[in-house]
Design a protein that fits this description.
eight-stranded antiparallel β-sheet; alpha+beta; 8 helices; binds adenosine monophosphate; about 350 residues; binds magnesium ion
């Protein structure tokens, strides 16, 4: 149990700190050689692409159109998006992106004992993290008892390019995987245009490809909070992605930025499909390294649900993944990582 003082510290830290993944830009050291960057708005956040080679002014347009397609497919805020239409039970032929993400999501649901589940939609909405921001804790408990009957990844499948729902009230939510997938798609576009050295970053979900310049590796970092005698400071855990193992993506999930506080209780936007509530644990954020960003994104969300011990048990059977956990215990920020997570080179 946290005492009052440490609880206050925790609260202050959680509010003030942004310990997320940052792509470290080393543009300055590259002089006039051909390192270029463009950025824009994507899925409620920013995107940024840094690349080496010939400048191509059509790249931002290509990236923007990939983001626009992702929004048209997956946005739950746009009532005309494919997912919104599926949630309204319109008969819609699924896009390849949606078929791919249903299949990948269901695989990750299996691997995480159902901690990751794209049928979480009704609970996300009832908690006010969807289109509506209303949340009434008392009616939520009652609502949840009935909503839970149509939560479960086993209740959906794809046949003849169409979504099959076991219950018409099933609502899909791809928010925990679509951002990572958008990173993968922009990276694919860059490769198709012939680039071999680039870094794609959407709101801290990062994919690095090749080398930056003169053999220098891309560097990414997790911003971590540290208590000192002079108060809270942030340090950077800087690392190079293990590109030689093909693990060139990293994604972070956390419960410290998107939550509601009602009568002193916190409700995070990451929900345990089994209990219908967010987990009350000391875990603050998880960064996952994987071979594609959609996978890293989904596992990071699942590990927030599962907590450190259960996640570590899964990770022991998945050496194609690496993870770094930040948690708050005994009045301090603490870190834990798998042995294959890259060392801090700061
Ligand atoms: P992320 O920021 O990638 O961890 O995604 C969080 C978002 O995914 C939430 O805002 C919800 O829309 C959705 N979500 C919440 N809980 C889950 C879950 N257990 N499995 C899949 N998606 C979830
Ligand atoms: Mg995620």
């Amino acid at each position: 149990m946290r005492n009052d003082k440490s609880h206050r510290k925790f609260h202050r830290a959680a509010v003030k700190t942004v310990f997320t993944l940052i792509a470290i830009s080393l543009l300055a050291s590259c002089g006039k050689r051909q390192v270029h960057n463009f950025s824009g708005i994507a899925i409620g956040t920013y995107y940024s692409v840094t690349y080496v080679g010939q400048e191509d002014i059509s790249l931002p347009v290509a990236a923007d159109s990939i983001i626009a397609v992702i929004n048209r497919e997956f946005s739950i805020f746009d009532s005309t998006s494919t997912v919104s239409r599926l949630n309204a039970n319109a008969t819609t032929v699924l896009t390849d992106d949606i078929i791919h993400l249903i299949s990948l999501s269901n695989h990750i649901s299996e691997e995480t004992g159902g901690a990751f589940d794209i049928t979480i939609g009704p609970l996300v909405n009832a908690m006010g993290f969807g289109k509506s921001t209303d949340f009434d804790t008392l009616s939520y408990q009652k609502q949840m008892d009935s909503l839970r009957h149509f939560i479960g990844y086993q209740k959906i499948s794809v046949a003849d390019g169409k979504l099959q729902k076991a219950d018409s009230r099933i609502q899909l939510d791809f928010n925990a995987i679509a951002k990572g997938y958008a990173v993968d798609k922009i990276a694919r576009m860059m490769k198709e245009k012939g680039y071999e050295n680039f870094l794609v970053d959407i709101g801290g979900e990062v994919l690095a490809q090749g080398r930056k310049f003169k053999g220098q590796e891309w560097r990414v970092g997790v911003q971590i909070p540290t208590e000192t005698q002079n108060g809270l400071i942030e340090t950077n855990y800087i690392f190079e992605l293990p590109l030689e193992s093909g693990m060139n993506c990293v994604a972070t999930s956390g419960n410290y930025r998107n939550y509601k506080e009602i009568n002193g209780k916190r409700y995070s936007h990451i929900i345990n499909p089994t209990t219908g509530y967010s987990e009350k644990s000391s875990l603050l954020s998880v960064s996952v390294i994987a071979k594609d960003c959609a996978t890293a994104d989904a596992f990071a969300t699942a590990f927030m649900v599962l907590g450190i011990e259960k996640s570590m048990a899964i990770l022991r059977n998945h050496n194609e993944l690496a993870a770094h956990f930040i948690y708050y215990e005994n009045g301090n920020f603490q870190y834990k990582q798998t042995s294959n997570f890259p060392k801090n080179i700061q």
